[in-house]
Design brief:
The protein is of the alpha/beta class. The chain contains 18 helices and 19 strands. It is elongated, with a radius of gyration of 27 Å. The two termini are about 40 Å apart.
């Protein structure tokens, strides 16, 4: 479902998502195909080296720009094969299970994400950690800004325990509901397409002392979450959907990777965490639910916390990072003279420069010509994946040190390009010169630029005076 969320966002940028899988899940495939997404099957062991090689071959056949990998059986060697195949790679991870990370990006959308889990990674591997990157499917997008009402006594309960629920925890929850003494309790239970216990659940529902409605392979989850007053859920990715919809929730941990999420959310009072499902009795679930149904104050507090935790623009933020990572550098040529002049005279560029006066065409041509002839000047134009010029990066070399200067075209600012341009430029410089250290000088009020340099591995070492103005001095050793 989280891959579907990213695929939908990619689709909305005129991209074509293709799902590659080794196991057949008819209900899921029908959902993907109904949204115009192609499904391709591999006949190999998931996570194997053969899987990686077949996936790389398919990606090249389809002309894929990115490969997104999601699953606990994909390790470091799998990633390495895809990168050696000259592919861009986004690796979705929940708890740092791989021994090494070779992906361009590692995405962990969970509030429990810890940077230390990914210490064993390549220098170019960037981390997208935390709930600002939450993957919400298209059906949730229209609910941005929706406000939930809080009834004095809640009576509508949504139960959703994941796509498979192999241990049939749903049955225990049904048993717990029979112990809740609330008049006219109204319950909807969502059953995933991979749940093998559907027939047993149907029988249990028929024997219930009040009406319980079963919903299978739902596509209207936001509506169900908006309808409900309280949810009983597993501690996985559904937590972020519940948080986005502001639905007070009781969590049961069904898998080890859910533990850290449930515990963290409980400390923030967004959810009530009952712990590992096998250690929880039906009576515990029933009594906890009864208390939450009765307490409007507790539910109101949980709703307020939810709205502060879950970001609304996770998918678009991720895609901006992917697009920024797809930039290429080429040497500056004579034809670039005019576009560089326009960029240099942009009011924002002038305001953050140490010489803020506008630049005449005559002066610019003279300066540009001198840079083209200077062997100690390394000068690149940055292009996005559509070969559109988006900015420039320049290095002035003295002995084994260089000073970096860069700028982005106005329409490409604020999209994550800055740090990627710095990273790519420094990597290219290191490969083609004897430079050992790169210096950057930034005006103290240019916070965006300082953040971009720090994110790219530079360290702040003090201040210097440049053109009679104070400058923050940052360095990076190659």
């Amino acid at each position: 479902m989280r891959c579907l969320a990213l695929a939908q966002a990619w689709q909305d940028t005129q991209g074509q998502p293709i799902f590659v899988m080794t196991t057949s899940v008819p209900a899921l495939e029908e959902r993907l195909q109904s949204e115009g997404m192609q499904v391709v099957h591999l006949t190999t062991e998931p996570g194997s080296l053969d899987d990686a090689q077949q996936t790389a071959t398919l990606a090249h056949q389809f002309g894929a720009t990115w490969v997104v990998v999601d699953g606990y059986h994909f390790g470091g060697e799998y990633q390495q094969i895809l990168k050696q195949s000259k592919l861009h790679l986004l690796f979705i991870d929940d708890y740092g299970h791989a021994e090494h990370y070779y992906a361009d990006f590692v995405l962990n959308q969970n509030i429990s994400a810890d940077k230390q889990w990914y210490n064993n990674r390549e220098p170019y591997t960037q981390l997208l950690l935390g709930t600002r990157y939450v993957l919400l499917r298209r059906e949730f997008w229209q609910w941005r800004g929706w406000q939930r009402t809080v009834p004095p006594v809640a009576k509508k309960v949504l139960v959703t325990l994941g796509g498979a629920d192999p241990d049939n925890v749903t049955l225990k929850v049904i048993q717990s509901l029979q112990l809740v003494e609330v008049e006219k309790l109204d319950v909807v239970i969502v059953i995933g397409g991979s749940n093998p216990h559907y027939e047993n659940i149907k029988i249990a529902v028929q024997d219930s002392r009040f009406a319980i409605r079963l919903e299978r392979n739902v596509t209207n989850m936001p509506e169900l979450m908006a309808w409900a007053d309280v949810a009983i859920s597993a501690g996985g990715s559904t937590c972020w959907e519940l948080g986005f919809m502001g639905l007070p929730s009781i969590l049961l941990i069904l898998a080890d990777n859910q533990r850290a999420i449930a515990e963290k959310l409980a400390t923030l009072n967004q959810v009530v965490n009952l712990g590992w499902h096998q250690d929880v009795k039906a009576q515990n679930i029933g009594s906890t639910l009864f208390q939450l149904l009765q307490s409007a104050e507790q539910r109101a507090k949980m709703i307020k916390v939810s709205q502060q935790i879950v970001a609304r623009e996770g998918c678009s933020t991720i895609l901006q990072n992917l697009e920024a990572n797809s930039i290429q550098l080429r040497p500056v040529i004579e034809d670039d003279c005019e576009i560089l002049w326009h960029w240099a005279n942009d009011p924002v560029i002038r305001s953050v420069s140490f010489l803020s006066e506008s630049i005449s065409w005559t002066d610019h041509v003279q300066w540009f010509t001198s840079k083209l002839c200077n062997q100690n000047c390394v000068f690149y134009i940055a292009l996005n994946q559509d070969n559109v010029p988006i900015g420039q990066v320049r290095y002035e070399i003295t002995h084994k040190e260089a000073t970096i200067s860069l700028g982005l075209a106005e329409s490409f600012r604020g999209q994550g390009y800055g740090s990627n341009l710095i990273l790519l430029g420094c990597k290219k410089l290191g490969q083609k010169s004897v430079v050992e250290r790169i210096n950057a000088y930034v005006k103290p009020n240019n916070l965006a630029s300082i953040r971009a340099f720090l994110k790219s591995g530079f360290q702040e070492v003090g201040q210097k005076t440049i053109c009679d103005q104070q400058a923050v001095h940052l360095i990076k050793n190659l």
